[in-house]
Design goal:
- By secondary structure, this protein is α/β, with parallel strands linked by helices.
- It has ten helices and 14 strands.
- It has an eight-stranded mixed beta sheet.
- Helix 8 links the parallel strand 9 and strand 10.
- Helix 8 packs parallel to helix 10.
- The longest helix is centred in the first third of the chain and has 13 residues.
- The chain is globular, with a radius of gyration of 18 Å.
Length: 320
């Protein structure tokens, strides 16, 4: 259930924080993983690598029980200040039956990832009432070095025990577009569209009433985006959403396929615009080079006309 205030806030990351690096979904590429770890060390972080970080089981980064054990170990380790995912991919949902949410709640700390990690971000929020972070990861983002605006949003959310305020990035004005005018305020909730749709009917289905809902995806052609959106809409989950913040859906299609399908933006227009809620499209989040970071579980305000998102509450607490 979504609540207006989290009951557990993770401690803010300190300067020189120790980050536990886990791979809860697909196995990381060694070369890109190495570059990402080097970039984190250059930022002054100390790193603890999960025992099964480099395991491989087909398309997964090791057995389900081992990946879950790595998460438990990083949350339980008092030397680890935050838990950062190496990458997304596939298979994070397979960990849900194995996770000890009481352990995670007893040892709150920032948990950071996106893409397939959406399932874990939402599950931890729902079961622990602790904010999580839909934000840059090791392999896809730190490996290419974070741009100043991207780094600033990531660090502010994770290290500042005051509300982060407006997420400043020139792309919000130059590439994002307003599809429905207005202002919306509510708990920030969402993630990668296909993963959110996959949680429908499970104990980890989030309550989206009153939320500012953010959605994005990758490698999904417009027909599948349409299917996921209609699944959410027909299930009634979009009826009481306060507003929408939509990212990109990068997808490579040949010319014939492009002629056959509606553009993905038109799919979002057709399905979401009639709901009449403030809506911004093409906001730089998720599977976007240099994505901005978003907190799951804290109140935000979306100004669709200005294409601005303001974080109204802290997502972390002062360290004791």
């Amino acid at each position: 259930m979504v609540r207006s205030l989290p009951s557990v806030l993770p401690p803010a990351l300190p300067e020189g924080a120790t980050l536990g690096i886990v791979a809860p979904a697909s196995p990381p590429c060694e070369e890109r993983l190495t570059r990402g770890l080097e970039a984190l060390r250059e930022r002054g972080f100390r790193l603890v690598l999960a025992p099964h970080l480099r395991d491989r089981y087909g398309h997964l980064a090791g057995a389900d029980v081992d990946r879950a054990a790595d998460l438990h170990a990083m949350f339980a380790d008092p030397a680890v200040d935050g838990v950062l995912c190496a990458r997304g991919g596939n298979g994070a949902s397979r960990l849900l039956p194995y996770l000890d949410f009481n352990l995670i709640r007893r040892h709150p700390k920032p948990f950071v990832g996106y893409s397939d990690v959406t399932t874990l971000l939402l599950a931890i929020w729902i079961r622990c009432e602790m904010p999580t972070f839909f934000a840059p990861m090791v392999q896809p983002d730190f490996a290419r070095r974070l741009a100043p605006a991207c780094w600033d949003a990531w660090w502010r959310l994770l290290s500042c025990s005051e509300p982060a305020g407006i997420l400043h990035d020139l792309r919000c004005q130059t590439q994002a577009t307003t599809l429905v005018s207005g202002t919306a305020e509510g708990v920030c909730m969402g993630g990668t569209l296909s993963l959110l749709a996959a949680l429908l009917g499970t104990p980890f289905q989030p309550d989206l009433a009153g939320c500012v809902l953010f959605l994005e995806d990758i490698h999904e052609h417009p027909g599948r985006v349409e299917r996921y959106l209609m699944q959410l809409r027909l299930a009634g989950l979009l009826d009481d959403v306060a507003g929408f913040l939509i990212g990109t859906t990068p997808y490579e299609a040949d010319e014939e396929e492009r002629r056959w399908f509606l553009p993905v933006e038109q799919v979002y227009r057709d399905i979401l615009v009639p709901l009449g809620k403030p809506l911004v499209y093409n906001f730089p989040i998720g599977h976007e080079p240099q994505p901005l970071s978003l907190p799951i579980g804290v109140r935000v305000q979306l100004d669709a006309d200005r294409r601005e998102l303001a974080i109204l509450e802290p997502a972390v607490r002062p360290r004791r």
